[in-house]
Amino acid sequence: MALLAGVFPACGDDNENQIIENSKTSGTFEPKEYDGLKYQQLSNLTEGSEKPILVIYLHSHNGSGNDNQKQLRQPSVGKMANYLADKKLPAWFLVPQCPSDHEWIENRGTPGCKDKVVALIADFIKNNPVDTDRIYICGASMGA
Known about the structure:
Blueprint: E1 30-34, E2 37-44, E3 53-58, H1 75-86, E4 91-96, H2 114-127, E5 135-139
Parallel strand pairs: 3-4, 3-5
Antiparallel strand pairs: 1-2, 2-4
């Protein structure tokens, strides 16, 4: 996460058991799905001419599953959402969920779902206004 230090200075080590509470964002995460990949989307959009940034967070192994909720329990998700709201940054924030029988990148015989994440991002950019010079992908452990 060093590359994002200037963008998200509040992000640090994750405590995997913490649950997002009292988010300062004006919106809420919405469950979505793209080509079988479940994800949560937060739209922190404000009026103005600036195109929104796109932030994608890839969770650690503890966020894997098929409930499309577990990945939101990682503390960095709440920290990033709050940072975007505090700074009033127009942004899209996507938090995909890796299925429990996959990893983000193929690893020791476990299939990866990197291609689905890349396709989600490409489709999202195609169908939404996004500042393509300000796309941030970060994560913890398996997603880092």
